[in-house]
Amino acid sequence: MEQKTASLQTARLLRKHRFNEPTTSYYDADGVFRTVSASDACNWNSPTYDKSPRKKAYSSPPLSVAHQWLREKKRFDVLVDRDYLFGKVGKYFAKIIRLKDGAISETGQYRSFEKALEQGIVKALRTM
Q1: What is the CA radius of gyration of the chain?
Q2: Could you tell me if residue 75 is left (phi over 0), alpha (psi between -120 and 50 degrees) or otherwise beta?
Q3: Are 78 and 95 in contact, with CB atoms under 8 Å apart?
Q4: Cross-strand pairs, 90
Q5: Which of these, 6, 100, 107, 118, has the minimum number of CB atoms within 10 Å of its CB?
Q6: Distance between CA 20 and CA 18 in Å, rounded?
Q7: What residues contact 14, with CB distance under 8 A and at least 6 apart?
Q8: Can you count the helices (H) and strands (E) in the chain?
Q9: Which of helix, strand or coil describes residue 42?
Q10: Among candidates 60, 83, 67, 44, which has minimal Cα distance to 123?
Q11: Of 28, 1, 34, the residue nearest 15 (C-alpha)
Q12: 2-60 pLDDT tens trace
């Protein structure tokens, strides 16, 4: 099963909030998605890639890695659930819980689990 990676918008927000885990995929300065082999994984958000605008890169981690980082480092939990109405399965939505004070917010509804998870991560990053 292939893991879904973060979009360019999410990668930019992760960089802004100091995501610094090594990844094998990234977006270059032009917004083009690129991957490297597992042995060449590095932190694309490091200052090494900030020296010139042309070299700027944004780490694009798998959503599971971004979710784990958000929970462990920034103390936000993103829970994805489905609506059930009159015995019928509905769309996915994400519930964002700020662990330090228990504040809860939700995203809209999405057709896929991955889209709901990514929107939950984006909403958590925007509320920091």
Answers
A1: 16
A2: left
A3: yes
A4: none
A5: 100
A6: 6
A7: 6, 45, 58, 59, 61, 66, 69, 125
A8: 3, 6
A9: strand
A10: 67
A11: 28
A12: 689 999 999 999 999 999 888 999 998 888 999 988 888 888 787 766 665 666 788 99
Output phi, psi for 36, to 5 deg.
-130, 170
Side chain identity at residue 13, one-letter code = L
HSE-CB for 64 with a 13 A CA cutoff = 4
User: Torsions phi, psi of 39, nearest 5?
Assistant: -70, -20
88-98 β-sheet, strand order: 76-85, 88-98, 103-106
Sign (positive/negative) of CA torsion 87, 89, 93, 97?
A: positive
Task: Judge contact between 105 and 50, C-beta under 8 A.
Answer: no
